Amino acid sequence: MANNEELFKKIISHAKEYGFVFSSSEIYDGLSAVYDYGQYGVELKNNIKDYWWKAMVRYHENIVGIDSAIFMHPTIWKASGHVDAFNDPMIDNKDSKKRYRADVLIEDHLAKIEDKIEKEVQKAAKRFGDSFNEEQYRTTSPKLLEYQQLIDDTKKRFFGSLENNDLEDVKKLIEDLGIVCPVSGTRNWTEVRQFNLMFSTQMGSLSEDTNLIYLRPETAQGIFVNFLNVQKSGRMKVPFGIAQIGKAFRNEIVARQFIFRMREFEQMEMQFFVRPGEELKWFEYWKQERLRWHLSLGIPATKYRFHDHEKLAHYANAATDIEFDFPIGFKELEGIHSRTDFDLSSHQKYSGKKLQYFDPELNEGYVPYVIETSIGLDRTFLAVLSNSFTEEVLADGSERVVMKIPPILAPIKAAVLPLVKKDGMPEKAREIMDTLKYDYLCQYDEKDAIGRRYRRQDAIGTPYCITVDTRTLEDNTVTIRERDTMKQDRIAIHEISGIISARIQTHYKPTPQ
Ligand code: GAP
């Protein structure tokens, strides 16, 4: 576990150092659980979106895409169940009348214990001077171990209580830990109550009593409310799907896991509309199909597993998660849900508009059943990033960090490098760059020794480096270096584009429906 935490920290700092992910508003000390994607991050993210979009919309003739607005009519969230049931716990202090999130009080308390551990380590380092062995101290000091045990036990109890919706125990935990209100300094707490995870804001154009609107907590509802628009305008026949990629917002409780759990994030969702009674067949199809999509990226199968839900939401009749082995353990990456006709029926009821499909083969109308595939874009990014991060010791004893990103997703596909910055090599390299850049994203780099330039490209996951040397000027050949093997071959300039294109082809082809 400690090793994985260490690995997670390394990945986070690599992501920052090499322009993949930054904390939002960093110069103002950041904004909790909100992140910005940098120059390479945005390319990787766009490539993941593209890989998903093509697999869904282009390769399945019966799936089309939409892009619905983030703001939607507030009644949508009543119909979907989010207003009443999308909650987290909160607590008030009776003396200060201040309101807190129960989880934040507990998290802050744990952070103080963590601070105590750090202070103890600093004190010991001063006391022992050069002979101080930090790792040994951290793993053997009884005081530190006691603190750590308290942190672990508290987390376990807190997450367990939350999962069982045992709000009384959450309050008792706050009391047992002796947590006081930072304003009044007292322990005079109210009961813990549920807190809705949706962000809300005001929309001026609506009348006074209905001006509260929400930032969508999922993209799915934008698909449901457009079901009939798309079906009619696209003359779609059941079974068919509607896909969407877009931002979602949740005022999350546990928000300390980098881009795993964010307050503003992106989802890639697809709702597949089927005949009632056929949903479990389609659920099985999509369960297998989505796993095939993940595996087509070349990430080992051992990194994925299904987690079938035993306790189903009241509207679902089957559900599974595809979990990924992140550095923080196996966690949900994608959900596949058989949502019955719950959403369409509910919108029918709340809107008063019929949301039915007339099936010409059966000669009858019905509200279709829905299979949903819902994947987090940022979590897929984190899965790719953490699977790619590799530290290697080379034959000559030197070390390199290489991001073994699947070539089809790599931000930069090729770097064009003149061996030295003279003798006509930069000009020749520029010529190559000027033809390749219309095929895919390339980078020209002439600064520093060639070895350092290779390392820079390894660190951002560029699959190929093209080097122009003296021989290039004589016979129009270059060396092409492959990122993972570091093997170099001599090829003709006119072959470059074809070789790289072949490597960045998709390996995913859907199973016929
Ligand atoms: N429409 C169904 C739905 O939204 P969900 O399990 O709540 O289902 C689907 O979310 C996916 O969205 C998750 O599997 C996860 O990948 C991603 N996701 C959910 N909350 C997230 C968060 N706070 N930060 C990043 N990704 C999140």
Which CATH top level class of the largest domain fits? Alpha Beta
Shape: flat
- What does the average pLDDT come to? 94
Sheet with most strands: strand arrangement: 3-9-10-16-13-12-11
Per DSSP, what share of the residues sits in E-state strands of 2 or more residues? 15-25%
CATH fold category name of the largest domain: BirA Bifunctional Protein, domain 2
Structure description:
The protein is an alpha+beta fold and 513 residues long. It folds into 3 domains: 1-72 and 217-389, Bira Bifunctional Protein, Domain 2 (BirA Bifunctional Protein, domain 2), CATH 3.30.930.10; 87-196, Herpes Virus-1 (2-Layer Sandwich); 412-503, Rossmann fold (3-Layer(aba) Sandwich), CATH 3.40.50.800. 39% of the residues lie in helices and 24% in strands. The protein has helices at residues 2-17, 39-58, 75-79, 82-85, 102-128, 134-140, 142-163, 167-176, 220-224, 227-233, 279-295, 342-351, 377-388, 425-436, 450-460, 470-475, 496-503, and strands spanning 21-23, 35-37, 63-65, 87-92, 99-101, 193-196, 200-202, 212-214, 240-249, 264-274, 304-308, 318-326, 329-338, 357-359, 364-366, 369-376, 389-393, 399-403, 414-418, 442-444, 464-468, 477-482, 488-492. Strands 3-9-10-16-13-12-11 form a 7-stranded mixed β-sheet. A 5-stranded mixed β-sheet has the order 20-19-21-22-23, sandwiched between helices. A hairpin with a 2-residue loop joins strand 12 (318-326) and strand 13 (329-338). The longest helix is centred in the N-terminal third of the chain and has 27 residues, at 102-128. The radius of gyration is 27 Å and the shape is flat. The model has no long low-confidence stretch (mean pLDDT 94). It binds glycyl-adenosine-5'-phosphate.
